Amino acid sequence: MSGTTTAAAAPRRRAAGAGANRWVVLVVLCVSLLLVAVDATVLHVAVPAVTEDLKPGAIELLWIVDVYPLVCASLLILFGTLGDRVGRRRILLLGYALFGVASGIAALAHDPQLLIMARALLGVGGAMIMPATLSILRQVFPDRRERAVAIGVWSAVAAVGAAAGPLLGGFLLEHFWWGSVFLVNIPLMLVSLPVGRLVLPESRGTVDGPWDVVGALMAAGGLFGVVFGVKRLGGGEAVAGAYTLAPLVVGAALLILFVRRQRRRTHPLVDLRMFARPAFSTSVGCIVLAMLALVGLELIAAQYLQLVLGLSPLQTGLRLLPLTFAAMAAGLAGARALRRFGPRRMVCFGFCLTACSVLVLTAMGRSDNPGLLLSGFLLLGFGLETTLFGAYESMLSEAPPAQAGGAAAIGETSYQLGAGIGIALLGSVMNAAYAPGLTSVAGVPAAASASAGHSLGEAYDIAGRLGGPAGTALRAAARDSFVHGLHVTLLVSAGLLLLGAAMALRLPRAMQCEADGDVTVAGVTVGEVTGGEVPGAEVAGVPGPRDAARVAASGGSVPAESVGRGGR
């Protein structure tokens, strides 16, 4: 009798603690996300200092900057699905440790090769952290209404991290050496490791069959090839180039083989049947389109502010801050809007608002217009974050709880692919509209005009070397051509965003919250803990569905050995 009472008291305490601590769990997860988001952009402002100190070659410098997002995007599915098998908290804590160690190596790197290796390890750590934060959030907030609030906070923190990276990097570089942009991660990870171990619950999906190691490696290799090829396209490389075409073809082939393998397996690494659900596949497509527009526009906007308007990097960052603040506001207000309007109207509205902001920005010209830029960036940030919030929430809620890690990894991979494709696609549109305006500038040699057509920065360099009337004419023509190209790119972006709005019409009209299928187990109402989503996912310390069946058969007591193991 006493054993039964003790076994019954334990889940009651854990259930009560889970309800009280879930917001603390959210804070820990958001700190994790903030570190990864900051590290993705913090190095950008440190590139000149790194170049001066380590003297990397052009290829080495490219790898220093790009290897982190490249490795991170490639390994998201691998670590997301592994977390479903071995435990999401375990993968997250290992990611913390690896991130801290890699940060120390990067800060003390004395040559480019060591820094590249450290950045690659940071990418591995980021790939372990990112899907784990979303999948743990999915388990800790089983009630969709609370989960919507949590995802809103999560997405707002992501927006803050992306904007804080360059600002934090600039501040550190003014007072310390370039390695400080990495050292700042270490104390935060030293705090996050013990706090995460103490606070975060362990959870995993149902373990059916062996983990598909071959499939995981195929997905990693395929994503690496595709993302690498897309990044080269975004850098202006020719499609037919050996180092662009080969990775794209090999990566696409591996991904096709991966899909075929998953369809044949009894216990697939990723349940592709999720894509048969319109809400899930549509949400993934909306994430790709939203990121495609955001990253390309941010890149071009930064060039416009610095090269056309002549603003400093710090002034450029400050001009872009309203976009971040608007994104934060949209994330925090997203949960209430989702409950009131539903996923379909919310995501469709976000796309349409973003398209309107893009059309407003087509009024940008050669002279500065702070009011226009402020209103355009506010609308852009609010609209895009509304879209991303609604799409992420719908995708995560539509996925089975047992596949939370895989679903989170798919969402993050879509995010990274959309960003890479956006830079490549909108960059190509920009170059196609910019270059023709420089083919026949009076007094400028044909070779100089051709070189100036590569970029606005190169055109300014050539104009400076030419000097005199020819240099002045080339500089003015390049500026006018860039503004023209910017307008064309914005119109293309508006068209893509309206395509996204049409795609969002496939999302559910209303936010379907789970019914409370309450099952009382040893004095604990399981539905209150799991929000009615008992099957498919098990959280340590919460009785699972197998326990409920055993309770019914054994007269109301849970065997002590099953408590804390989900009834396995």
UniProtKB/TrEMBL annotation:
Gene Ontology terms describing biological process: response to antibiotic
Species for this entry: Streptomyces griseoviridis
Chain ranges of the Major facilitator superfamily (MFS) profile domain: 25-512
Record's GO cellular component terms: plasma membrane
Transmembrane segments: 23-46, 58-79, 91-110, 116-137, 149-169, 175-199, 211-230, 242-259, 280-305, 317-335, 347-365, 371-392, 413-434, 482-505
Chain spans, region Disordered: 548-568
A molecular-function term among this protein's GO annotations: transmembrane transporter activity
Main location: membrane
Membrane topology designation: Multi-pass membrane protein
Cellular localization per UniProt: Cell membrane
Descriptive protein name: MFS transporter
Keywords for this protein: Antibiotic resistance, Cell membrane, Membrane, Transmembrane, Transmembrane helix, Transport
